[in-house]
């Protein structure tokens, strides 16, 4: 009966599908803000999830004894009174009959009356909580963490808001025939045995709640999944390995991009340098043939191995040559390697 009433409340209030009805009156006090619940998918035939309460709060699974400083705000939500006529042949009617054990002999419908009165909403200050958890770690030795981690279907959730009654409330159920005036209080001689039942529960009873899923990393850090797009769970070894490979791939991609940019700039510089050389008049293009100028030599004849040209072989393209000049020196080296054409003449033009 209680579960049917809370489901009806959630269906009518809505809240974009975030609200979850409390399934049992005996567990209503376990769905308070910052309490932990376990979310588990029933099976592939049932798209909805099952939420199971736990005796723990978020603080219980964190390392350290520091309390969570995030506050809880409260305000009145609405005044809820509901009367509905439910067919015995529907799923909801069958659920109520099985839950309450009401006598439905000669009946085809059930009248349900829920009187919750003014209900209040209690919610955690999300921004404050998000700032605080950045410095907190999960205790993997906690029994709830160990059990949840061993199941790939279980997701830990934190209750972020709860909806509670403010006064003593009642639920009434009466079995009858559709079309009759459904009444909830009968004299004993007018009421067939077991056709009318009612329960009364105390004030401050939680009737609905909403949660944020937890995503827990291998190092103990965790995130609150504040949107429906992000999903909770535990980071797996294979997931961490894949994430590392993905980061390495991005690093290598960025490094290759920088290398190609450097090659491109180097190539543009050489193109400008060589085009400037070839655009000069022929009378100025070969300084090395003039009297008194430096002389091209084959460095192999002087037991000097082939190496990169000092002008065009210092970049990513290792352009090597066997020619050079003994009249020039760089960084204490008594010769420089230069391609015979055009690097030799370009180098000496720049030297002049």
Automatic annotation (TrEMBL):
Name the principal localization, coarsely classed: membrane
**Single biological process term from Gene Ontology:** programmed cell death in response to reactive oxygen species
Subcellular location(s) of the protein? Endomembrane system
Stored Pfam families: Gasdermin
A single Gene Ontology CC term: endomembrane system
Instruction: Tell me what this protein is called.
Output: Pejvakin
Q: Does the keyword Endoplasmic reticulum apply?
A: no
Supply the alphabetized keyword list.
Membrane
User: Which InterPro entries would you find in this protein's record?
Assistant: Gasdermin_pore, GSDME
Q: Where is the Gasdermin pore forming domain?
A: 1-235
Q: Which family does it belong to?
A: Belongs to the gasdermin family.
